[in-house]
Amino acid sequence: MTYSPYWNPRNETLPREELRALQLVKLQRLCEWAHAKSTFHRRRWDAAGFHPSQLRSLDDIRRIPFMTRAEWMDAQAEEPPFGPLLTVPPVNAIRYHTTSGTTGRTPLRVLDGTKDWEWIAEMWAYGLWGSGLRREDVVLFAFSYGTFIGFWGAHYACEKIGCLVLSTGSATTESRVKSMVDLGVTTVCSTPTYALRMAQAGAEMGIDLASTPVNKVILSGEPGGSIPAVKRQLEAAWGAKVCDSAGMTEIGSIMIFECERQPGGTHIIEDNFIEESLVYEGDAPVPYGERAERVVTSLGRGFIPLIRYRTNDLVVRLPHTACSCGRTGDLYHGGIQGRWDDMKLVRGTNVYPRAVESIVRECAAVDEFQILLTREGVIDEISVRVELKPGREDHWEALRSRLHVDLSDAHEGLRFKVELAPVNSLPRFELKAKRLVDQRPAADYGRHDA
Ligand SMILES: [Zn+2]
Known about the structure:
It is built from eleven helices and 19 strands. It is an alpha/beta fold and 450 residues long. Strand 16 (366-376) and strand 17 form a beta hairpin. The two termini are 42 Å apart. Bound molecules: zinc ion. Zinc ion binds next to loops.
């Protein structure tokens, strides 16, 4: 059977002018709704002198005050458990979810109604379909199915598309690999870190994942899916096409995905999101091709409207013509490149964990690694601790010299210590890997977010 390459052929190929007109109408409706129904939004907008009637063109979005995670958390604390953000009483909700809570902080709590949940699955369907998923596929979710929203929406999108879906909530990595083989799974959804781990487990079990029917690995939850070295390694280990996607608990779903053409970036689902690229923590727009903070307005979730929300995500936006698939949604080059507050200043040089990962992962012998920041006297030190795959120890000397040179070259000559860590000594992650440990004894090096 021949399928359209697009989940929503009309909207995904809408000329930019019409796309903007659609965004404006949806934005006007959303703001009227939020103003009428959410005390949280009305209070903030009244204080800033904004009213939805001021939205006459899409550029008027700049009249709306930004919304931050801190405000959301404060509101939640002020009126637990949800805060005055809700537009309808909780009795109308069918789903309760949270952020991952990996930081130990109080998680953000969200509620969704039937219509929201339908929309959340629809957004995932754009992405999964765009990455090549069809009803004939058998999909395995390497996901815990707790309150963290993660892949929940993707599961429902797969049902919507008509796939056979395998949930593997509390299963071990080994039993996940086994069910994958037993049931002829064609698509695996997981974080990049966990996809690497499954490949490793397969190798230990004597199963060559590249010879299984798996032909697609859909990644989310961490930036790795768009790091070329990580993608290459995963594609080789799995013998499959690896596509990136990214979402947020605050949205409930994904807002970007990588299409089958794999253009080195992710399309924004622009008929459902208005994504602004702004100066970090500022309000000036940043042109195509330059580093920006993404600020998102979700046009589809009614229970908790998300309007001009500062994400702290570091992105580089490209025009839709950077991909040949025919979608008119713009792209983020390299997906979500990290978080602005993940950036560390070491002896005057900016260090982005993603850039370090790109270099370290170039070597296939690396199993796990950690970036450690310490202070010796008044001098900051940066070390990269590397764990090799079993049996690859003979790669160490060559790898150490290469990492010394490559890490330094990529960081204005900054000297990195490169150390070998014993097998299985570094932490392993299933979700939201935290490979940077900052042990410098100082007041504030920025928050470590989930
Ligand atoms: Zn494309």
